Queue: 4 jobs
Job 1
Amino acid sequence: MPETTPDTTRSTVLAADRKLDPADADACDRLARTLCSRGHDQVDSPEWVARARDAWEGLPLPLRREVRRFRRHSGPHGTLVIGGLPVDQAALPATPTVPGSVQRRATVSAAVLTMVACGLGEPLAYRAEKSGALVQDVVPVPGQESFHGNAGSVPLSFHTENGFHPHPPDFVVFLCLRADHDRIAGMRIAGIRRALPLLTPAGRDALFAPEFITTPPPSFGPDAAATETDVKPRPVLSGAAEDPDIRMAQLVTTPLTPRAAAALTEFGRACEATARTLRLNPGDLVVIDNRVAVHGRTAFHPRYDGADRWLQRTYVTTDLRRSRDHRPHDGHVLAH
């Protein structure tokens, strides 16, 4: 995989790990359109998700093989990037500019995202975030430039998604519908498998200790800390000492001891030293293993002219059953 000259963040700007050939991309497009053919299809309906789950089996074998392999082991970076996915660019409306924007109606891009989510596990959402939509827009919003979340355009610090929650997603899937005007927005990703060797023994020990509090991110709203979170102290790293899982968000993870503070700083430096930056093109699909990788974003300059950067996102769990007590009617949305 070719690498370019390092950018100003000192990480590496990479193209897609894989790119679908035109015939496979056309097959994906045709299959996605079958999920949008009824005119009233709703992405969040159980029936539509069931159709997307069945449709996954009809996607081209090279795409399904890459996703299955990644699910088993997400590699040194915890990231898979596949280019050339259909997003129906000719029919795209203006990039949304309203807070909390989501995709409720079936579209080609929503169908691609949901089929891949069903190949990885099951799609998942949180009622307090983006009104529980399964497919969410990641777009800049006027007046929220400094918002530390998906609506902002300032740098976004490293985090795993929803690490405060008893049931964080196992994977996060993004699909790029539009790049930013200046092609400078970068998705920054750092994996524990590269960062771990840079940590000192004392730092590792502290990160495995339950000496950190992680609260909900700003996207969950101001009341989430009181109603949506299990606030007991947790470790940042857990599981196998040689291949741990991560729960951390630099903005909302608070160390409770001096050694925890030092270790969190050390971990942040290790992530900076090993991070990759992805500059996405329309049709690029990014799958992040949320258990072993953190991600963030570089700054960019929105114009609010209808053609700004537009990603769509969905969360995935590999075991929907384990969150049954949080999901009314056995749906895909965690209510608390």
Job 2
Amino acid sequence: MKKVLLAWLLTGALALAPEAWAQSDAPTTIEYSERVPAEGAGKTALYQRALDWSQNKFAYKPVSGLKTEEGTGAVRMTGTSKLKRVDNKGKDQEVAVLFDFVFRANDNGYEYSVNSFRVVPDPKQPTQVISFDEYRSELRADKSNERTHNDRRLTAQAVSLASEAAMSFRSYMNSTPAEGHIGVAGGEN
């Protein structure tokens, strides 16, 4: 009886395996977006805080296209980072990636996103930029991709980058000191 049950389980697992493999090749949207309620915080205060992070704490440089609109509480900019693919010999090769950070505030909260990933495939031609999806398709078509898995490798790194940038921003926004209480609050001993 145990052998029959084991055979059925093994057959079922093998039958589902191709479907699981197909899912791993599905395109992954690389974006991190969030709406954050902040009752009564005020659009101007939230905008100023996001602007301060953008100008002083944003770690993905060089930054380009910084656009601010105080009236609408909006900040938008393009950040730069590096991803690492592997060549045929197993050595890392850096690839420049660009992404957008977009912020918009209202009186009771804000929303932000990290998205629009683009790749500079050739460092000798920095003005040639293609979408991340197009670059990922080129990697999949490469005959060495079965060995290097560069399409999945760069996708995972880009997803991680989006999450990392978003966490940095959210952490900064959450560290807003209460009015009149700058620094660490502590009780008296």
Job 3
Amino acid sequence: MVTKPLVSVVVAVYNMQDTLDKCIQSLICQTLKQIEIILVDDGSIDSSGKICDKYASKDTRIRVIHQKNSGLPMSRLAGLNEASGEFLNYIDADDWCEPNMMELLYNAASKNNADIVFCSAYRHRNDGIARICNLPIDEGLYTKNDIHDCYILPLYGDLKTDNLITTGYVWCSFFRKSILRNIKFYKDICMHEDEIIVIQALSRAKSIYVIADPLYNYNRLAPNSLSKRTIYWENYWENIIDVYEAKREFSCNFFTDDSEYMDRLTTYLYLKLFRSIRNETHYTNPAGIWGGLKNVYKLKSKKYLFKNKKYIVKSEFSPVERSLIRLTNCRLYFLVYIYYLIKCNRMRTYVEKTKN
């Protein structure tokens, strides 16, 4: 007799042969045995697909989906469409889970009738291991209104005054599968795509349970991790605009007036514009130095900056960045570009400041 799984674990896989074994092993060894593991091979060109098939041949709980390369959002959607568990968790192929992660998350969700369970995580980086993702509230059951200030607001742009280190990761979010039904997966969003999933899930959730324990291991050591990439990002600004528009679209589920969140979102957008300009100075940009400058002037939808500039939280910017804001508002992008070109030495020495 085949027992229906309690939890579906979806792992999107693309060229992760160096870390995939550890990830899958951490799922196979979970103390909660009634899980299904859905490995979505997104057209890998290394041995990742073969590794997936190897494990599937040894463990009947593992299913493999091989598909043409479609990107992370479409891989997650493919896994969701195949999932049969009552609950669902997304895991990144370069990370791994604590042995009791699924058991603790499932027990918290089922016993408390929670639609989402959040847990903490360990971040592994060259400078050591740190605990992240913990909500600045006690472990327990909450409504989305209860966590509005400490979690939902930072999803629209975190500020230095926020206590929460990181927001919006799906791998520390355990979902009742029914609240993910028919949510939007944006094919062209390859950065901050987790936040869009979490925002939509929160808009549908009636109850959220918070676990204080770190149950996930977020790997910043893997050289091919998306979070560690320092190369030139093609269409970086376009991706940011897509995220911005998606957050505006779903804002009505949490806010009654733009003024409640636009300070965060506008500040976020200006910071990302500067990141976009720095990106164009990157020495791997195929357009070169002057082509990068032309690309800055071609960036679309800068109207969002000027339309909402009154909302900027100036304390989030350094004195130099405040000057760059003034230059930006005067459309003097070439001066901002030259500043970062000199400061970052075409991005050879630049390391982006990040909270995670």
Job 4
Amino acid sequence: MLLEKGALTSDWMPAFKAVPRDAFVPDRLWPGTAGGNRQGEVIDRKTDPARWWGKVYSDVPLTTQWDDGAHPGTDKGRSPTSSNSMPKMVFSMLDALSVGRGNRVLEIGTGTGWNAALLSYRLGPDNVVTVEVDPSVAEEARRRLAAVGLNPLSVVGDGAQGYPDGAPYDRIIATCGISTVPYEWVEQAAEGAVIVAPWGPPYGGQGVARLRVGEDGVAMGQFVMSSAFMRLRDQRDTFPPTDAFPGASNWPSTASRRTTTLSPDDMGSWHHMFTLGVQVPDMFCRVEWRRAGAYRLWLLDMGCTSWATADHEPGRGEFEVAEYGPRRLWAEAEAVLSWWREHGEPGFARYGLTVAPRGQRVWLDHPDNPVPVRVP
């Protein structure tokens, strides 16, 4: 199946056969969807081995921890915080990493340890350093790695800091989402090194960036695929509650009212979310569900000054909009998506990322063509 999808290349086949996924999956798991943003009910190997094996060898992500371990029960918790990623994504990212004999690799986010095991088998454990922020997750991964005879250097620490004691690295791979590439990773990379990391703005939409580190200390490259990874703990987003916004608790308050042909459904497209988040970095959204597929989409700003809502009903071509505060957030979103259409409706492959000592920027088609950032 992975060969048919083009995700598993021949150079990774020996590692795939030698390091079975089931050796890195606990007895209790919550299978996800390909997008990684929904989890099914728990499956326990002890009580339902057939389903457990079926999911382990399906191309889906497997949640293995909720709420940083604070939720130990069989029900789903609030937020998934550790997982075994879907095999297609694992091998697609390893392919993008382009490892070669003798490469030293830094992995950010050990998780269950499967990715570290694959790298260790391919390159040798002495060439792999893996960093995990959660001590219990790290310890379980060490146990599983040792059971298959692979013992890379396993470090408990903040992945945002990398691991300078093992630098320089020829390759750096993150198995967690980020909204800012920590410059420490660039500093710990050798000249010409490759960094592969899932990057996305707080609004949503995430893609895997493949960056090459230059002699000037600047990392630059394009996005190679879409992704949906849990956030690096150091970069988790905290959004203010809706009732902290003036006028929101007594909607519509004194909001301006109008209609729009921009469907709230369009605001949930992965490419649209990415483009919106890049151009309006202080905007976030919430969904208020109603009956029969109807819902209200809220757009809000991090400064708690403005909000906008649009009411979606299936089958409608026009939607009621309310905008409150000094900013007109729905109009800002309309302007971003107009820009997107005017530029040929770009997908991830046309976007790129530059990371320099003074910051980072997203660009379209060429590093000299930065995507505009709309500052209020």
